[in-house]
Design a protein that fits this description.
The chain is α/β, with parallel strands linked by helices and about 500 residues long. Helix content is about 40%, strand content about 15%. Strands 10-19-18-17-16-15-14-11-12-13 form a ten-stranded mixed sheet, sandwiched between helices. Helix 3 packs parallel to helix 4, helix 9 runs parallel beside helix 10 and helix 15 packs across helix 16. The radius of gyration is 26 Å and the shape is elongated. The mean pLDDT is about 95.
Length: about 500
C-alpha cells in the first residue's frame, strides 16, 4: 500500500480529473466505499444504533453526507451534525441537500448532545494543519469525551496528513483511509489518533500514481523471499552466521539474538562473546558453535581478540554485531575493524551503533552491504539531532542517512521504516507490547539469519521486520501486550515461519 503526503494525493486527484473523473463522482465513490466499510466492521444490529455523521463545510463533508444518506436509506437512525457552518461548496452542498430531502435530520454542533453509538468524523480532510480554531476545538473535545465508537474518514480531524503533527484532534477507534495511506497514519503522534486503519479503493486508476512513494510491507512481499526447502539440502545450504554479541552485564542479548537466528532457519550459527559469559551462553544454547574471546577489565570483548574475529569473518556468510556488546574504546575499535574488513553483509545494532556514532564516516569504508537497526534515540545520535526531530521526520531522516552512507536503515519503533536511500518501506504490524528490552536483539538475529540464507539485504530487513511484528501481534493476542515477553515471541517464532515456506 502506498503512503502519500497531502500534496501528492492532490496531484493524483488532479491527474484523475484530467482523465475524466469529477469531484462529485469521486465524492460519491468515497462516501459509498466508506459506508460499506462501516457496515463491514460495525454493521451488526446497526438498525438499532444511533449514528452521528459529524461534518465540516469543506470537501471532506461531502463524503459524510453520502454516508448519512445511505445509512438512512437502509433504516438507520443517522443524523448530520454540522460542526460550524452549512456547506457552501457545490459538490458537498449537492449531497447535503440530497440527504436532507431523503429525511436525514441535520443539526448544528451546539444543538446536539452526542448521545449516540457511533460518530463518523468528516470534519477535516487532508488539508488541515496547525491548531483547531473555535468551535472545532470544542467539537473535538466533545467527540473525545463521548462514549461513542469514533470512525474518522481519511484522517482524524485535527491531524496533519503530511507531518503527523497534532495539537488537538479527534481520537478515532478506526480510520478509513481513502485510496492510499497518508503520512498521518504512520507518523507519530498522529498515528496514535487513528485507531485501526483500513483503506478503501475509490476507483482512481493505477496510472494516476507516480512510482517512488513509500510502501507498506505486505505478507505477500515477504513470502516471495522464501522458497520451499530442497529435499537434498544440508546445513551449509542455509548459510553461516556469525553473532558478535554479549558482555558480562548483558549476556541475554547474545542469547536472544542467537535463538531468533536459529528459529528463522540459518544453517550454522557461531556465537562469539567474552569468555566470562561462557556459562550463561552455553546454559541457554546448545545448537550453535561457540567462540569465547579474550576480554578487558569491563568484561567486554577486548581488542586483543581482533585477529580471532578476522578469522571468523572469513568463515561467515553474514555477521550480526552489537547486541549487548558494551560501550568502550575496545568495542569502538572492534566494530570499526569489522565494518572495514568484512566482505559479507553486516547487521549493526545497539552498542554496535553506539560505537560508530562518534566516527560515523567509518561507514563509508565498508566493503560489504551494511544494515543498521537504530531505535529513535540511536538514530538521533547518528544524525546529531534530538529524538523529537527524528520521530517527526522518520521517513526523511532514515532515507537521507541511508542514501548518504549507502547502507540500509531499519529505523525501529511503531511503524518501522526500512530504506536503502531510494525505496522506502513501512511496517504497519506489531504493537506496544514489543516495547521492551530484547526485541531489538531478536530482530538483529533474524536479519542476520536471512542474510546468511542468501536473501538480498533490503529484502532480509523487510522480511525480518514484518515477521518480527507479526510474531509480536500473535503474542499479544494470546497473552496481552502487558504480559508478553521476548521469550514468548521466540517460542512462537519457529512455528510462524511455516507461513513463509
Amino acid at each position: 500500500m502506498r503512503i502519500l503526503t497531502a500534496k501528492q494525493i492532490r496531484q493524483v486527484e488532479e491527474i484523475a480529473f484530467k482523465n475524466g473523473f469529477t469531484e462529485e463522482g469521486l465524492m460519491l465513490c468515497a462516501g459509498t466505499a466508506c459506508f460499506k466499510k462501516i457496515l463491514k466492521h460495525y454493521g451488526d444490529d446497526i438498525e438499532n444504533k444511533k449514528i452521528c455523521v459529524l461534518c465540516g463545510n469543506g470537501k471532506n463533508a461531502g463524503d459524510g453526507f453520502v454516508i448519512a444518506n445511505l445509512l438512512v436509506k437502509m433504516g438507520v437512525d443517522a443524523s448530520i451534525v454540522l460542526a460550524d457552518a452549512a456547506p457552501e461548496l457545490p459538490e458537498p452542498k449537492m449531497y447535503f441537500d440530497q440527504a436532507v430531502s431523503n429525511g436525514v435530520k441535520d443539526y448544528f454542533f451546539t444543538e446536539y448532545d452526542f448521545d449516540c453509538d457511533i460518530i463518523v468524523d468528516c470534519i477535516f480532510g487532508i488539508g488541515f494543519h496547525g491548531a483547531p480554531k473555535s468551535p472545532f476545538d470544542k467539537v473535538f473535545d466533545a467527540v473525545n469525551n463521548s462514549n461513542a465508537v469514533v470512525i474518522s474518514i481519511d484522517t482524524p480531524s485535527g491531524t496533519d496528513a503530511t507531518t503527523g503533527q497534532v495539537v488537538n484532534a479527534v481520537k478515532a477507534d478506526m480510520t478509513i483511509a481513502i485510496s492510499t495511506l497518508k503520512y498521518a497514519h504512520i507518523l507519530p503522534p498522529a498515528n496514535a489518533y487513528c485507531g485501526k486503519v483500513v483503506t478503501v479503493n475509490i476507483g482512481i486508476p493505477e496510472d494516476c500514481y507516480d512510482s517512488g512513494y513509500p510502501q507498506t510491507i505486505t505478507k505477500a512481499d515477504v513470502k516471495s523471499n522464501f522458497a520451499k526447502r530442497d529435499k537434498n539440502s544440508h546445513k551449509g545450504t542455509f548459510g553461516r552466521q556469525l553473532n558478535i554479541c554479549g558482555s558480562y552485564l548483558m549476556p541475554g542479548a547474545a542469547v536472544i539474538s542467537a535463538l531468533s537466528a536459529l528459529k528463522t532457519g540459518v544453517g550454522l550459527l557461531k556465537c562469539a562473546f567474552p569468555k566470562s559469559i561462557y556459562p550463561v551462553i552455553t546454559s541457554h544454547l546448545i545448537q550453535p558453535l561457540f567462540k569465547p574471546l579474550c576480554e578487558n577489565e569491563d568484561k567486554t570483548i577486548s581488542m586483543g581478540a581482533i585477529n580471532d574475529i578476522f578469522e571468523e569473518l572469513n568463515w561467515a556468510d553474514s555477521v550480526a554485531v552489537g547486541c549487548g556488546l558494551g560501550n568502550n574504546d575496545d568495542i569502538h575499535v572492534i566494530v570499526s575493524q569489522i565494518i572495514k574488513t568484512s566482505e559479507v553483509p553486516v547487521v549493526l545494532d545497539a552498542d554496535g551503533i553506539n560505537a560508530v556514532a562518534p566516527f560515523i564516516d567509518i561507514l563509508k569504508d565498508k566493503k560489504a552491504p551494511l544494515i543498521i537497526t537504530p531505535h529513535p534515540a540511536e538514530m538521533a545520535r547518528l544524525v546529531n539531532e534530538d529524538v523529537a526531530y527524528v520521530q517527526a521526520n522518520r521517513i526523511d531522516v532514515a532515507r537521507a542517512f541511508a542514501k548518504e552512507y549507502e547502507c540500509i536503515v531499519a529505523l525501529k519503533g511503531a511503524n518501522t521504516v526500512v530504506t536503502d536511500g531510494t525505496d522506502v518501506f513501512v511496517n504497519t504490524n506489531g504493537n506496544a507490547g514489543m516495547a521492551m528490552g530484547g526485541t531489538g536483539d531478536m530482530l538483529t538475529g533474524m536479519i542476520g539469519s536471512f542474510l546468511a540464507q542468501g536473501i538480498a539485504p533490503i529484502e532480509a530487513a523487510k522480511s525480518a521486520v514484518f515477521i518480527h511484528g507479526m510474531c509480536g501481534d500473535i503474542a499479544a493476542a494470546e497473552l496481552s501486550q502487558s504480559g508478553m515477553t521476548v521469550n514468548d515471541m521466540l517460542h512462537l517464532l519457529g512455528a510462524l515461519m511455516s507461513e513463509f515456506e
